[in-house]
């Protein structure tokens, strides 16, 4: 088989493997390079961070821990007596690993079904769209391509005050591998990853303290939603310290001693495990030859235009390694767009309609603009909210906290932002994404018939509330 391809994709995560499959479906001779190996080093592992040590395993643990918490605390009030509920951490981890194995194996099957050639090794982009692949034995082989798609993803950021220490100070990947529930758990960073991991272990019995250096909780989230979420997380027992800047962490006598400063001065925290979850950075280690023609900014992100083209002809980059939110679904959309553009089509990702989700309980999800952004931009807007406390289905499910919030343009009524904190927010937000993708007004949603009783009725009511017409809550009086 010739070593020249129409498309070579470097990286088999949600951006890379999706791009490779789509390119092959469009009749392009396609190969995908991935360096991730199984624990014995013999076989290739597809799926990237998301499937192996990110989105999927964390959601498996979130689901299991949520069920455990419900059985332990919430069943009795619903008439279900389940005494002495226990968690088997080993079985929980086996379940998580089984799901990961099934999904990563599924990608290998999809590659085969679509005719994608899988190349195992570390890919490096050379000049003129040549890709040098180094295998586990250190042997190199060079491949040629008409087009190269870089989809190498990201890796956890490490910080000097809290160096990784096996078994004690870990990153988000290590936090998915605990073999027992830590009695006391510290987390640096109250972002998406920190809150999700904190939720898992708090539900299973850990005493969790989250240290966040910023003074604003979830600054990217609409602050009405963020404040509601913070109140609920604290009510659940998560000790979230805002303005807590970590200055040091060291292991002494099988405990991690964490030093930090907050508004009250210098503080100390002793924990059994410490998770560092301060964000992720682009993974570009040994990726680009000096003459590859591809440029990066000072933070390591590859420069691309709105179509994901780099400055080198025929070279594209997608996902966490380029600008924009580090989200698996954003990477996949970019991967599809690039494959279709290579095939001569002209799609474009609508970056205004990419949903964000935090899979805590309650979930937090949003798409579009926040009130804070619109105020900064000087845009006139109107807001409608509806609480799940007034939703029959949410009450029946014992999940009546949170709200749906819809922000619309003051003059045109077009939906500008759609925000949810509450049950199934990750699913409900898709209604906002679809509405915004089609340029809907709040009135469009208000005139739509929603099934009763459903959680989605809260979307209907929030849309009605935008223009003062909600049925199941009192509407704000309009100013005369």
Describe this entry's structure for a reader.
This is Dihydrolipoyl dehydrogenase. It comes from Marinobacter xiaoshiensis. Residues 5-335 form the FAD/NAD(P)-binding domain. It is found in: Cytoplasm. By secondary structure, this protein is of the alpha/beta class. It folds into three domains: 4-156 and 281-349, FAD/NAD(P)-binding domain (3-Layer(bba) Sandwich); 169-278, FAD/NAD(P)-binding domain (3-Layer(bba) Sandwich); 353-466, FAD/NAD-linked reductase, C-terminal dimerisation domain (Enolase-like, domain 1). Helix content is 30%, strand content 25%. The chain has helices at residues 16-25, 48-53, 55-74, 89-114, 192-203, 223-235, 328-342, 371-377, 392-396, 425-437, 442-446, 457-466, and strands spanning 4-10, 30-34, 117-120, 122-125, 130-134, 140-150, 154-156, 169-170, 184-188, 207-212, 239-242, 245-252, 255-262, 265-271, 273-276, 280-282, 315-317, 356-358, 363-368, 381-387, 403-409, 415-422. The strands form five sheets. Strands 1, 2, 3, 4, 5, 6 and 17 form a seven-stranded mixed sheet that branches. It starts with a strand and ends in a 14-residue tail after the last helix. The mean pLDDT is 97.
């Amino acid at each position: 088989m010739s070593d020249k391809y129409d498309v070579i994709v470097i990286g088999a995560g949600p951006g890379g493997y999706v791009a490779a499959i789509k390119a092959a479906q469009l009749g392009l001779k396609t190969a995908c390079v991935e360096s991730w190996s199984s624990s014995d080093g013999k076989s290739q592992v597809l799926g990237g961070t998301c499937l192996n040590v990110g989105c999927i395993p964390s959601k498996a643990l979130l689901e299991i821990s949520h069920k455990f918490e419900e059985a332990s605390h919430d069943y009795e009030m619903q008439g279900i007596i389940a005494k002495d509920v226990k968690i088997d951490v080993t079985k929980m981890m086996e379940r998580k690993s089984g799901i990961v194995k099934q999904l990563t194996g599924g990608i290998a099957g999809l590659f085969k079904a679509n005719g994608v050639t899988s190349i195992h090794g570390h890919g490096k982009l050379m000049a003129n769209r040549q890709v040098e692949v180094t295998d586990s034995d250190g042997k190199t082989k060079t491949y040629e391509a008409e087009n190269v798609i870089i989809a190498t993803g990201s890796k956890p950021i490490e910080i000097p005050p809290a160096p990784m220490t096996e078994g004690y100070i870990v990153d988000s990947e290590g936090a998915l591998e605990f073999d027992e529930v830590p009695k006391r758990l510290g987390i640096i960073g109250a972002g998406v990853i920190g809150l999700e991991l904190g939720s898992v272990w708090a539900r299973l019995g850990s005493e969790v303290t989250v240290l966040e250096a910023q003074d604003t909780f979830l600054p990217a989230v609409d602050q009405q939603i963020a404040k509601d979420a913070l109140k609920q997380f604290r009510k659940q027992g998560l000790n979230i310290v805002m303005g807590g800047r970590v200055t040091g962490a060291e292991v002494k006598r099988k405990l991690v001693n964490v030093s930090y400063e907050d508004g009250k001065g210098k503080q100390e925290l002793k924990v059994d495990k410490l998770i560092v979850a301060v964000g992720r950075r682009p993974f570009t280690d040994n990726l680009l030859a000096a003459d590859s023609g591809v440029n990066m900014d000072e933070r390591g992100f590859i420069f691309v235009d709105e179509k994901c083209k780099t400055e080198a002809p025929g070279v594209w980059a997608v996902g966490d390694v380029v600008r924009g939110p580090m989200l698996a679904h954003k990477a996949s959309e970019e991967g599809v767009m690039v494959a279709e553009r290579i095939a001569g089509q002209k799609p474009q990702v609508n970056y205004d309609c990419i949903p964000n989700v935090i899979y805590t309980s309650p979930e937090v999800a949003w798409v579009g603009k926040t009130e804070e952004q619109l105020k900064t931009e000087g845009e006139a807007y109107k807001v409608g909210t509806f609480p799940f406390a007034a939703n029959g289905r949410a009450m029946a499910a014992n999940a009546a906290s949170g709200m749906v919030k819809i922000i619309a343009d003051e003059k045109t009524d077009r939906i500008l932002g759609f925000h949810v904190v509450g049950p199934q927010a990750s699913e409900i937000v898709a209604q906002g994404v679809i509405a915004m993708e089609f340029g809907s007004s709040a009135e469009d949603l208000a005139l739509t018939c929603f099934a009763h009783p459903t959680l989605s009725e809260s979307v209907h009511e929030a849309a009605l509330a935008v223009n003062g017409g909600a049925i199941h809550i009192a509407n704000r009086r309009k100013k005369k």
